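hey m, so remember when u said the tokens were messed up on ur end? i reran from scratch. heres the input so u can diff it against urs
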Amino acid sequence: MPIIVNLDVMMAKRKMSLNELSDKVGLTLSNLSILKTGKAKAIRFSTLEIICDVLDCQPGDILEYVKEITIKTR
């Protein structure tokens, strides 16, 4: 998937653990872990909003689009 989740990067910059973020945003550890590891298929705007509020960042700091490169073979 070309959407990369940089939640772990922002948590490291803010020196915040997954447990602390879970307490502050009100999401379970398992759901945050799924998001952090890039296994999530979607995220609600309301969830993104509270994560950005707690981590004091922009949605673009959490989510990144990386264009997939296809290699053509002859």
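this time it looks ok to me. The chain has five helices and two strands. if urs says something different then somethings off w ur setup not the seq
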